[in-house]
Design brief:
single chain; about 190 residues; alpha/beta; globular
Length: about 190
């Protein structure tokens, strides 16, 4: 069994925000597998169950806000008896990566990402992450406002056409055990 855990904010106003790119990827996977989301309050998350190549996969979108997702991750890991090193994948945005970049990492620190900081507080640091670059050339003075802002129409088109399909392929590779820790650039 694998647990695919996305970082994001649960409020509808954030649905197409940069911080919710992980939720967008999981929504695509759930739709592809005709899975329905169920609110599981004991996990503080929406859960969908799918099967990829005969492997049961739990998709999880925490109901907590982005910076407080670690407790939800811990509850899911404990309940489903998930080994974080081999069976736990986190999908999240990365402000330090240019838009159109997807990077896979097997472990590491939070690099200033408060959601990852929360997960690292509740789960050991050795779990796989797929980071989706969200930075663009816009000047900004407030990173918090930027990550909570919606993707513009051009970015949204590129997400739908190239970035999300690539991320879905990487999730399948993670489930199969064939995911390589590398970067994909210029997917836009």
């Amino acid at each position: 069994m694998k647990l695919i855990f996305a970082q994001g904010n649960p409020e509808p106003d954030y649905a197409l925000s940069r911080h919710n790119v992980g939720f967008l990827i999981l929504n695509t996977l759930a739709t592809m597998h005709s899975a329905k989301w169920a609110n599981k309050t004991k996990f503080n998350a929406l859960i969908a169950e799918i099967t990829i190549n005969n492997e049961k996969v739990i998709l999880a979108k925490p109901n907590t806000f982005y910076n407080e997702t670690g407790a939800s991750a811990r509850k899911l890991i404990d309940f489903y008896k998930i080994n974080p090193e081999t069976d736990f994948l986190v999908l999240h945005d990365d402000l330090a990566l240019p838009f159109g970049t997807v990077r896979i990492r097997p472990q590491g620190g939070d690099a200033g990402n408060n959601g990852i900081k929360s997960i690292n507080t509740h789960v050991e640091h050795n779990y796989t992450r797929i980071k989706i670059g969200i930075s663009n050339n816009e000047e900004r003075t407030d990173d918090a406002a930027f990550v909570l802002a919606k993707f513009n129409n051009s970015e949204l088109s590129k997400l739908i056409e190239k970035i999300i399909p690539q991320a879905v392929k990487l999730v399948v590779q993670f489930v199969d055990g064939s995911l390589e820790h590398t970067s994909y650039k210029n997917l836009e």
